[in-house]
Structures are given as C-alpha cells and as structure tokens.
Amino acid sequence: MILTYTPDSLRPDCPHTLRGVPALAVRLGRALERWGERRAALPPREVRLRRYENHIANERRASAAELALLHVR
Asked: Count of CB atoms within 10 A of residue 50's CB?
C-alpha cells in the first residue's frame, strides 16, 4: 500500500477545477468574508449598554475633577 498526498485525499467533495492555488484563494476569500461579517456585527445589547454607561461615568468623573481644579484656585 502506497500512502501519498493528493488533494482528493483531504477533500473528496472538492471540484476538480478547484485544486492547488485557486482552491487556496477561494478558501482564503471565504474565510475573509466570514471574518468581516463577524467583525462588522454589533455586540450584544447588554455589552453596548455597559460600555455606554462606563463612558458616561468616566465623563462625569472627568468633569468633577475639572470642577475641583477650578475651585482650588
């Protein structure tokens, strides 16, 4: 028995026209599309609200610190 690597040994359902570099390009393109879709998706609502609330709290602290500096003089 001879064990050799062929494209069909890994993906028998792959069309014969998609072998080698073209197959790699197609897979890379699909992976990039999936990555872009995940990256562009909005985070869950709870996460967005928590970030917004943290942002507002930081702004309030910064304003309080600026006011405290103004009253010290």
From this structure: 12
